[in-house]
Amino acid sequence: MKKMIHVSNQGATLDTGRRNFLKLSGVGLAIAGLTMIGCNDDDDFQMMDNSKIFDLGTGDVGILNYAYALEQLEADFYTKVVNNFYTGISSIEKEVFTDLYHHEVIHRDFFKAAISGATQNVLPKLDFQYPNVNFNDRNSVLATAKALEDTGVAAYNGAGKYITNPDYLVIAGKIVSVEARHASAIRNLINPGSADFSGDDVIDANGLDLAKEPKDIVMAAGGFIKTRFTWKERGIN
């Protein structure tokens, strides 16, 4: 049976009249709400065993839980940033971080609703840590944001080939385009007016964003994630 999942932007009180970088880059996807059709009750879903460490699952469910884990991390990070802006932050930087906060919260809640609408094997709320991040220091916050956004883009690009449901693939493609704009915005804050948004560290010789395997992404982000989980299908134990 097909289910339709809706996540609205209710409560995301952004100034939609601002003509800033993110608005001009087409991030309307993130603030206009998301809809996904095609969650089949008979897809490759697994029941959750609370007595064991959570496994993301197999097939498309594993991919959705993987994306949900990453969106939880980004939403948690930006929540901490906007709840206590670093000293000396500019008005432009406040706007960018506030926008990114709203986008990532919407992405996180979208994945939770989508997975919950189709299976009980939903990744629980994760706990995070930031041992090397000084949230009162501009350079530390921007460097961490840059690492998270670049990692997010590479994660979606690397996971796309494993998605079998075309509806999921369309949604992933839309969200990764937003994440790429986030990465560009952060890089522009670090080095305004530069070409860092397309630096050699994130763009390959063909001019395409890098793609990384889930195992490499989880290893890179693992220092932030306190809650242990596995993804045996992808060799993450």
Strand order of the largest sheet: 1-2
What is the oligomer described by this structure? single chain
For the record, the CATH class is Mainly Alpha
Helix and strand pattern: EHHEHHHHH
Q: Compute the gyration radius: what is it? A: 17 Å
> What gross morphology would you assign?
globular
Q: What's the number of helices? A: 7
CATH fold-level name = Ferritin
Provide the number of structural domains.
1
What class, by secondary structure content? Answer: mainly alpha
Low-pLDDT stretches are 1-33, 36-48
CATH architecture: Up-down Bundle
Descriptive account of the structure:
The protein is mainly α. The protein has one domain: Ferritin, core subunit, four-helix bundle (Ferritin). 48% of the residues lie in helices and 5% in strands. A two-stranded antiparallel ribbon has the order 1-2. Keywords: Membrane, Transmembrane, Transmembrane helix. This is Ferritin-like domain-containing protein. It comes from Chryseobacterium jejuense. It holds the Pfam family Ferritin_2. InterPro entries: Ferritin-like, Ferritin-like_SF.
Highlighted features:
237 residues; mainly alpha; two-stranded antiparallel sheet; 2 strands; 48% helix
